[in-house]
Amino acid sequence: MRKRLSNTFLGYFWITFALTVFSTLLAFVLLSVASRWIAGELAKNRYSARSVIQADYRKIDASEIVANGGGVQIIDKNYTVIYSVGIDTIHKNQLTVEEFTELLTESKNKPYHYDIEYEPTGEFWLIVTFPTSIRFDFALVYNKEASRSDFYRSLSVLIGVGLFYLVLLSVISYIYARLTSSQITVPLKKLTQGTLSLREGDYSARVDLHLKNEFKDLQDTFNEMAARIEEEITLRKLAEENRRRLILDISHDLKNPLTSIGGYAEVLKDKYDIPELQAIYQNSRRASFMLNELFELSQIDSPDFTLKKVKT
User: Of 46, 95, 98, 181, which one is least surrounded by beta carbons within 10 A?
Assistant: First the structure.
């Protein structure tokens, strides 16, 4: 059974789809591993707020943080900046509740990393700030201490997103496969129809694919071949018609003189017993018979010639 070209392309794209899914999962795993590996190399993780915080903020050593391009700010319970060293992204000595809340909730939208720790004894917040060169926060985290309901809820969302991604990717792959295969199968169908028309004797068949790729070269070659065949067939028909007319003209022009010669020879041979007259008479009859045969053959070759069925 012949395999359709479109199905072959569809199979190739399903293979591509499977490889794409595998590559995506592999990229996810590699990015997760890379995120965990690089986390320990970044200054923001080496100098966390928890590692330097003291109950008395005046004992906090921020020299290493500042030396690595960071900054330290301390905000008391009244949202007043009571200490600042190194880079300062707050640019204020007094914050409102809304501004402090925004600092806590929208820190990831800024090109800085904020590590915030609260000291209950001294009643202040320690903020360690580092510029973000490239944010690379990508990891899949599972915490056994989380509630079971939250775990299943998060897992269901993750599975739903994964299934939606797979369905969307499969639909896109299918549509792309069909569109791509149609760019090949449709021109091939038109070329096949053109060759079938030539085989059936329609030498005026031409193909117009409306394309500007390799199929256009094939289209031009096909049309040139069809035009050459049509021209040769036309010339052959014209030559055949000229030959037929020539035979008709010759047979018509010679028929009357030969009939006259045969008639005279028949009269003379009856009066005179001369062998040459008998030969003339026999040859004239033979030539007339051959001309009649040639005339009938030319009529059979004529496109106007028809056969009628006669009962005998």
Answer: 98
Q: What whole-number distance in Å separates Cα of residue 140 and Cα of residue 284?
A: 112
Token output for 189: 């169908």
Contact call for residues 207 and 191 (beta carbons, < 8 A): yes
Alpha-carbon distances of 7 from 17, 177, 179, rounded to whole Å: 15, 9, 12
Q: Mapping DSSP to helix (H, G, I), strand (E, B) and coil, where does residue 110 land?
A: coil
Q: How far is CA 165 from the centre of its chain?
A: 21
- Which tokens sit at 167? 């369905």
**Residue 136: how many CB atoms within 10 A of its CB?**
13
Is there a contact between 191 and 219 (Cβ–Cβ < 8 Å)? Answer: yes
Query: Looking only at Cα atoms, what is the longest distance across the chain?
Result: 163
Six-digit token pair at 100? 């402090």
Domain ranges of the chain: 5-39+142-180, 43-131, 234-301
Helix (H, G, I), strand (E, B) or coil at 84: strand
Sign of the CA dihedral with 269 first, then 270, 271, and 274 last: positive
φ/ψ (deg, to 5) at 238: -65, -45
Q: Which residues pair with 75 in a beta bridge?
A: 81, 125
**Cα gap 11→13, rounded to integer Å:** 5
- Give CA–CA dist 107/302, Å, rounded: 97
Tokens for 221?
A: 């070659």
Distances (CA, A) of 308 to 207, 302, 305, 311: 40, 15, 10, 10
Query: Residue 117 in 3-state DSSP?
Result: strand
Rounded average pLDDT per 10-residue block, the chain, 312 residues: 59 76 79 68 75 87 86 90 88 87 75 86 88 60 62 76 80 77 80 85 83 80 87 86 78 75 79 80 81 73 67 70
CA dist., res. 43 & res. 61, Å (int): 16
User: What CATH number has the domain spanning 234-301?
Assistant: 1.10.287
As a whole number of angstroms, the distance between CA 55 and CA 13 comes to: 63
